[in-house]
Amino acid sequence: RAKDAGGGTYATYHPSMHDALASRIELATDLRLALERDEFVVHYQPNVDLRTGEITGFEALVRWNHPTRGMVPPLEFIGVAESTGLIVPLGRWVLTEACRQAVAWNRPLKMAVNVSVRQFEDDDLTGMVAAVLTETGMPPQQLCLEMTESVLLTDTDENLSRILGLKALGVLLAMDDFGTGYSSLAYLRRFPMDVLKIDRSFVDRLGGETEDEALVRTIVRLGQRFGMSTVAEGIENETQLAVLQEMGCDTAQGYLLSRPVPAADATALLERNTPFPLPAGSLAS
Ligand code: C2E
Ligand code: MG
Ligand code: MG
Ligand code: MG
């Protein structure tokens, strides 16, 4: 409508588009500076054994501790970090930080770190992970790399060799947000995944809608059948916890147990040395 309004108004022809682009460019610059200024922090969310209530490990989740905006969640900047390529150095920073923390805890815990498709497509992902393991002294079998199904979608042969390269380092691989992507079950045979993370959207609807319950039960069985452990994400209430426990899902993660917390709070959770109370009690004998 800029034309109708007469001359001098072209700048506002697509105001929202322009603003969105301008703010993305600004965000890209800010993110680069934030990495230099060390403004990112990693929070840790416990994974809890559904048989014993014990903490089996943590997922590392990045946040941007912005000088004026406060703690910015990843969904507000990961997309731009991916499209600008900043996710590569940022991802390396997160991995290093998480491995250092795991080594400092000095317990047999798993540390899960998210790897985006953009990082996965970087030729040197395996070399980078190997370097961080050496630098930090992290035992590879304690590191679990979480990737989404989209990683498996393109150029399967190249991706398969990348996956095998990572596996050769001795690290674990998890399929994150399982059930939301387009991967066929055949991929699960082809790609040596160690962990299936059942997406929050399915966990959300547990304890009512029987179809979702059947779906989650199927994923848990699939995991058992293929020798993959199952983690349910986004547990917010006791009902979900009880249903998952009854299904034989291995591990639980969600606000009900703990939100992602700063390293010091995660350390306090570990030092408490008390299992989380489970609806059906401890199933461990
Ligand atoms: P994700 O890997 O699926 O991580 C789980 C997300 O669910 C986290 O959000 C976590 O805080 C949230 N969550 C956990 N329990 C609950 C619950 O009970 N209820 C609800 N509503 N949410 C729950 P967060 O930290 O905001 O991270 C969002 C996404 O950003 C992550 O999803 C992951 O895809 C991405 N991300 C986070 N950190 C990194 C990173 O270091 N690198 C990369 N590449 N991506 C990251
Ligand atoms: Mg994840
Ligand atoms: Mg997830
Ligand atoms: Mg998710």
What descriptors fit this protein?
alpha/beta, eight-stranded mixed barrel, PAS domain S-box-containing protein/diguanylate cyclase (GGDEF)-like protein, globular, about 280 residues, binds ligand C2E, about 20% strand, single chain, binds magnesium ion
Describe the secondary structure blueprint for this structure.
Layout: H1 15-36, E1 40-49, E2 55-66, E3 70-72, H2 78-84, H3 87-105, E4 110-114, H4 117-120, H5 125-136, E5 143-148, H6 156-168, E6 172-178, H7 185-190, E7 195-198, H8 200-204, H9 210-226, E8 229-232, H10 238-247, E9 251-252, H11 263-272
Helix pairs in contact: 3-5
The protein binds ligand C2E and magnesium ion (3 copies).
Overview of the structural elements:
The protein has 285 residues and is an alpha/beta fold. The radius of gyration is 21 Å and the shape is globular. The chain starts with 14 loop residues before the first helix and ends in a 13-residue tail after the last helix. Residues 1-13 have low confidence and may be disordered. Strands 1-2-4-5-6-7-8-9 form an eight-stranded mixed barrel, surrounded by four helices. The protein has eleven helices and nine strands. Bound molecules: ligand C2E and magnesium ion (3 copies). The site of one magnesium ion (MG) has 4 residues, from β6.
**Compute the gyration radius: what is it?**
21 Å
Number of discrete helical segments: 11
Mean pLDDT over the full residue set: 90
What proportion of the residues form beta strands (DSSP E)? 15-25%
First and last CA, distance: 72 Å
Spatial strand sequence of the major β-sheet: 1-2-4-5-6-7-8-9
Segments where pLDDT lies below 50 for 5+ residues?
A: 1-13
Instruction: Summarize the biggest pleated sheet.
Output: 8 strands, mixed, barrel
Write the H/E string, N to C. HEEEHHEHHEHEHEHHEHEH
Organism: Paractinoplanes tereljensis
Protein name: PAS domain S-box-containing protein/diguanylate cyclase (GGDEF)-like protein
Domain EAL: 24-274
